[in-house]
Amino acid sequence: MKCPVCKTPELRPTLIEELLPAMGCEQCKGSLVGLLYYRHWAEHHKPPSDANGPATVSELPADSVNALRCSKCERIMNKYRLTGTVANRLDLCSVCDEAWLDGGEWQLLEQLQLSDKLPSVFSDAWQRKIRTESSERLRQEVLRRDIGADDAGKVETIRTWLSGHPAKSRILTYLYRD
């Protein structure tokens, strides 16, 4: 099997973690991970207990921006975003059930506390949540740009207060009358 990024080097057997085999590229340091092996690893792996939540990442690994072909079947792999704030995307061949991790992306998954959540990352619900969060962030940025950060903060405070208020519709009706 050839590396989907470098195209020339042969992929070689490697271990991403203990009990998690993959086929790795010595040149770009990427890895092709079979989700069957991943699921076995996830069943026997105890996730770290970090009460602080996901860490922030200071330096992101390089991400393959072009569409990749699966090393096994040559079909185009789908790209899946990890979060709304990290640009890296994981590539998945839905036919072979194989994921391509660019060099450094496994460490990124660990920093984001997502290494034990790959099936969730590849789900429609996860991707929809990322799009919704990104859209909301964009709306907030536009509001800050249009009316200024101080006034946008006030609007957000009112919005939060209004969202749980029992007379929300009456208040909005009153405000819309102007």
Can you walk me through this structure?
This protein has 6 helices and 6 strands. The protein is of the alpha+beta class and 178 residues long. A hairpin with a 2-residue loop joins strand 1 and strand 2. It is elongated. The protein starts with 11 loop residues before the first strand and ends with a helix. The mean pLDDT is 91.
In short:
The protein is 39% helix and 16% strand. The chain has helices at 35-44, 105-111, 118-121, 124-147, 149-163, 168-176; strands spanning 12-17, 20-24, 31-34, 78-81, 89-93, 98-101.
Keywords:
single chain, 39% helix, 6 helices, 178 residues, elongated, 6 strands, alpha+beta, 16% strand
What's the structural blueprint in terms of helices and strands?
Layout: E1 12-17, E2 20-24, E3 31-34, H1 35-44, E4 78-81, E5 89-93, E6 98-101, H2 105-111, H3 118-121, H4 124-147, H5 149-163, H6 168-176
Antiparallel strand pairs: 1-2, 2-3, 3-6, 4-5, 5-6
Helix pairs in contact: 4-5
- Report the sheet with the most strands, covering strand number, pairing sense and barrel closure: 6 strands, antiparallel
Distance between the termini: 67 Å
Secondary structure class reads: alpha+beta
* Overall pLDDT score: 91
Order of helices and strands: EEEHEEEHHHHH
Tally of contiguous helical segments: 6
| Inertia-based shape | elongated
Backbone CA Rg: 21 Å
Which stretches are poorly predicted, pLDDT < 50 over at least 5 residues? Answer: none
Strand order of the largest sheet: 1-2-3-6-5-4
- In total, how many beta strands? 6
User: What's the quaternary structure here?
Assistant: single chain
**Percent range of helical residues:** 25-40%
